[in-house]
Amino acid sequence: MFKYGFMSNVMVANGKKELDKIMKWAKEKGFNGVEVGPTIPLNKDLFQKTQAEYGVKVAALTYCRNFLSHNEKEAEEHKKALTERIHFASELSIPVIVTSTGIDKRIEEVYDRADAIRKIPRRSLEQVIEVFKPIIELAESKGVKIAFENCPLMGNIAISPIIWRELFEKLNSQNVGLCYDPSHLVWQMIDPYRPIAEFGDKIFHFHAKDTQVDQERLSEVGILTDFSWWRACIPGEGSLDWRRILDELQKIDYQGFISVEHEDTNYEGSIDKVEQGIWLAKEYLKGV
After folding, report:
1. Does domain 3-287 have CATH number 3.40.30.10?
2. pLDDT by residue (tens digit) across 52-86?
3. Which residues, at least 6 apart from 66, have a Cβ–Cβ distance to it below 8 Å?
4. Which SS3 state, helix, strand or coil, does residue 204 take?
């Protein structure tokens, strides 16, 4: 019923850098798509050739960067790269680009870190709107959807339902939505299930990743000392109820890809271990 894919980044980082080899492995292991990250060059002929040869779709392009960087050259380069991906996706009928919003990091120079963390999202909101309005207009004209990932760790304010509502209201476009990753909501103490119904028409892409919580460690450090009380893991080895998540996705008639985002330290160190982790994640989800 669901279409399964995975992010290319972890394979590239572990030595499998060629799109052809990644797509071939995806075909052999029963995946429907690959979410292609920024480390793979945008080569139109190669993208078309590999999709046709292996029958595996490019599920999405991913480009998560800080578009609010105060290094103006860097910020412009990021915006240019995202714009290039919108044109590229339109030409190849790739439906979604996964990205981040950017954050105003200068706020940490004004407040101590704990206070800054609380103030960053809304201090950055108007800047995000200003940067993304022309980007979203281009995406609309090209028939491409922009999906904000909800990871707080990569220069991003689209991290909670309350911020999503404000973003979507201010950007006011059917082409802007979410790459929904429930694992990040776990360690933020946000309900990972309920938002699926509310934001159903805004979930354009889905990252399958789990979070394992060490309750004993949490009782010692709390949530602010460090992040040693949780870790990312493959679905089925963490805190999330995946049957409930998949049921919620069925209720909203989710038609996009379920893309395994592999960050599990138990399955790293070699390309063989990485591939095992990605495959086990997919097999677990299919068997739930």
Report:
1. no
2. 999 999 999 999 999 998 899 999 999 999 999 99
3. 74, 75, 78, 100, 102, 103, 105, 155
4. strand
